[in-house]
Amino acid sequence: MEIIPNGEGSPADPWLAYFADRGHRGVRRIGAGVEGVAYRLGEGRVAKVWSGRPSVGIELIRRVYADIARYPLPFFTPEIVGVEDHEGVLVTYERELPGVAMLPDSAHVDYERGLPIQHRGTLLAVLSGLASVPGTQAMRQLTVRGDDRPLWRDHHRFQNALAALVGRAAGRHCAALAAYVPDFEAGVRRVQKALHSLPDAPVTAIHGDLVPPNIHIDAAGRPVAVLDFGFYTTAGDPAFEVAVTAAICDMYGPYAEEHTAELTKIFAHELGYAPAILTTYQAAYALTTFDLFGLDDREGHFRWCAGQLRRNAVFNA
Questions:
Q1: Cα radius of gyration (the chain)
Q2: Is the CB of residue 47 less than 8 Å from the CB of residue 41?
Q3: What pLDDT sits at residue 10?
Q4: Is the sign of the CA dihedral 158, 163, 167, 172 positive or negative?
Q5: Model confidence, pTM
Q6: I want to staple 286 with a disulfide (CB 3.0 to 4.6 A). Which of 165, 244, 271, 305 is the partner?
Q7: Per-residue model confidence as pLDDT tens digits over 88-104
Q8: Residue-level pLDDT at 11
Q9: What is the DSSP string of the chain?
Q10: Which contacts (CB < 8 Å, 24+ apart) does range 77-84 have?
């Protein structure tokens, strides 16, 4: 769940009393996102009150968290320690993760033109850490947001599974995106062809939404926690994670385009990926998420996806 800070919450919030009645003192509402509302309970625990049911089931999510936590990463990841159903509403209890957000979301704060070298190092450390976690069967059973079937169903290669998802996603609201992206149908075919042509790669854990608020750092700037798995979490080529992170680190700031180009170049060099592979995955990400929040350029994510595709070398080859 994306945590959007929103203060203490209203005194009339019934969940404050709910958790207090269960022995938690000083309960605070700490944020809200698409999936629900988060509360700090104290004693190293947080609770998430879901606004609906996760499509894959909470037990599968718990298994994915456990699979990731099994490996000795240099940062903490989520762990579900309890689940309950209160009058049809799902509540999960998780360990509270340390640190503070690396940066606020670029939708709310403009980033400086020059990316701090320390932040580049933080991103590289997180990318390298997650790439050391093998993809598991539980991860392959996950759906990505907006789709209704596990990404890996009927596929043995991540690249082919992603190409199939591109086809399904582009078909959902193709007219909406085609109104803003020239030669849309041909571009979709070019991206799918490029995905099928990518070489085999290791299958590792993919977070899929490594924006700065989802990376917590300590006072020295080192990554100490990665949170909010779920938006595009799956098993796949670690190059996909690298490509997407470069693109979404700054989505809305005045220097967003420059930052994407700079991080793509840095990550390609430091992690040994061909730039064309990263460009292909960036096009696939835009094509598979463009319609999740709105269907015209008044909505920021749609506008960002359309801009990505208009500039993408693989989509426009």
A1: 19
A2: yes
A3: 56
A4: positive
A5: 0.93
A6: 305
A7: 999 999 999 999 999 99
A8: 59
A9: ---B--TT--TT-HHHHHHHHTT--S-EEEEE-SSEEEEEEETTEEEEEESS--TT-HHHHHHHHHHHHTS--SSB---EEEEEEETTEEEEEEEPP-SEESS--TTTSPPPSSPPHHHHHHHHHHHHHHTTSBP-HHHHTPPPTT-SS-TTTT-SSHHHHHHHHHHHHHHHSHHHHHTTSTTHHHHHHHHHHHHHHSPP---EEE-----GGGEEE-TTS-EEEE--TTSS-EEE-HHHHHHHHHHHSSSSSTTHHHHHHHHHHHHHHHHT--HHHHHHHHHHHHHHHTTSS-SSTTSHHHHHHHHHHHH-TTTT-
A10: 77/225, 77/226, 77/227, 77/229, 78/227, 78/229, 81/45, 83/58
Provide the pLDDT for residue 254.
97
Query: Is residue 266 a contact partner of residue 120, using CB atoms and an 8 Å limit?
Result: yes
Give pLDDT tens digits for 58-89. 999 999 999 999 999 999 999 999 999 999 99
- Share the mean pLDDT of the chain: 93
